[in-house]
Amino acid sequence: MKVEILSIFPDYFAPLSLSLPGKAQEKGLLEVAVHDLRDWTHDRHRTVDDTPYGGGAGMVMKPEPWGEALEAVAGPDSTVVVTTPSGEPFTQALARELATHKHLVFACGRYEGIDQRVVDEAAVHHEVREISVGDYVLNGGEVAALVIIEAVIRLLPGFMGNPASLSEESHEDGLLEYPVYTKPATWQGRAVPEVLLSGDHGAIAAWRHEQAVRRTAARRPDLVPASHLVEEAELALATRADAGEILTLQRACWLQEVMSNETLAIPTIHESLADVEASLASWQTYVLRSAGRLIGSVRGTLEGDVWEIGRLMVAPDLQGRGLGRRLLEHIQEVAPPQATSYRLITGERSLENLRMYKKAGFSVYGPLGDSVAVVLGKRR
Ligand code: JD8
């Protein structure tokens, strides 16, 4: 891979001759060329900036030096990477993608940014990627380019001594790193987790995975893949504090019921927060949480010797992963001893629900009055 960089501060890239990037260049895995943008100026002051059209603070980088520099450095197979706070987010997946490119040309701006016509013109001749390394403001594009270059070149075949280590890394499998330890086994009265000294590789792998999921759930719930959200989901009795989220999930889940049964005559969708709060007094209500997010709920109440089951709901983006079955199993398990049968209601055209309930041993008893609902039941 060839990496070329255009900047008015070329010395920023001296670190690329150090450590692994330096060795990669020695091994011919990587070619790096850093260019001073001012080399494409023609006035005595080597001017690269001017005042912004439309006024405002600061200066803007002039288009001419950039146009000439990119024409000189970038070719038809080059990918021009412009680092900018308004770019697409840089991720491990984007790093993997850029690592397959043969020629990357980094355009590092300064001041308030580069005249927009530079990017517009470059995009006619090259693939142009405007990339941001994070939601914070730097003074220029150089540091961001260094971040991207390091993340990309370390993925080059032959770059890392042990490529296997790449696959275990943060963000590779969507999870954050598990905690790591080395000798001594005890330090400052703190012991290394026993499992890591056990030699049981299966147990170690399981412990590391669980730690990675927990850490990701705690620090980056946005990264927790649905599969892990499901794996880590925990049931608990609902409290008043859950009422708002229960109402929100209820509204989200019953939208499907409204669409399936083509009616708004479904009491659940007309319930208010006060109704949900009040229901907690008469219904034994459970919530399913994962990574702090309410992803499911169900409730039950005893009517004579019948355990009424209701409000079984799973977040729409997590349906089809067995959470509904888990909630249904749980609400049956917690039925009081007096309950000799179960009863629940769903839409006559709520086919997914009907499929799940019948699979769980429920059978349709009949319509609920003249509504679109049907009653299902099951002996305990
Ligand atoms: C390129 C000029 C400074 C930015 C006025 C401060 C990336 N994640 C990121 N944060 N900041 C940058 C970045 C900042 C840059 C330039 C990248 C060129 N600046 C400007 C706009 C506000 N000053 C970045 N990638």
Quick recap:
The protein is an alpha/beta fold. It has helices spanning 19-26, 63-73, 92-98, 116-125, 142-153, 164-167, 201-219, 226-231, 243-261, 273-282, 323-333, 351-359; strands at 2-7, 31-36, 49-50, 60-61, 78-89, 103-108, 127-132, 186-187, 190-191, 234-237, 284-290, 293-303, 306-314, 341-347, 363-367, 373-379. It is elongated, with a radius of gyration of 30 Å.
Write the layout of secondary structure elements.
Blueprint: E1 2-7, H1 19-26, E2 31-36, E3 49-50, E4 60-61, H2 63-73, E5 78-89, H3 92-98, E6 103-108, H4 116-125, E7 127-132, H5 142-153, H6 164-167, E8 186-187, E9 190-191, H7 201-219, H8 226-231, E10 234-237, H9 243-261, H10 273-282, E11 284-290, E12 293-303, E13 306-314, H11 323-333, E14 341-347, H12 351-359, E15 363-367, E16 373-379
Parallel strand pairs: 1-2, 1-6, 5-6, 5-7, 13-14
Antiparallel strand pairs: 3-4, 8-9, 10-11, 11-12, 12-13, 14-16, 15-16
Helix pairs in contact: 2-4, 9-10
The protein binds ligand JD8.
Question: What keyword list fits this structure?
Answer:
33% helix; binds ligand JD8; alpha/beta; 12 helices; elongated; five-stranded parallel β-sheet; seven-stranded mixed β-sheet; 380 residues
Describe the protein's architecture and organization.
With 380 residues, the chain is of the alpha/beta class. 33% of the residues lie in helices and 25% in strands. The strands form four sheets. A seven-stranded mixed β-sheet has the order 10-11-12-13-14-16-15, sandwiched between helices. The chain has a five-stranded parallel β-sheet with strand order 2-1-6-5-7. Strands 3-4 form a two-stranded antiparallel ribbon. A hairpin with a 2-residue loop joins β11 and β12. α2 runs parallel beside α4 and α9 packs across α10. It is elongated, with a radius of gyration of 30 Å. The termini are far apart. 29% of the residues are buried. Ligand JD8 binds next to β5.
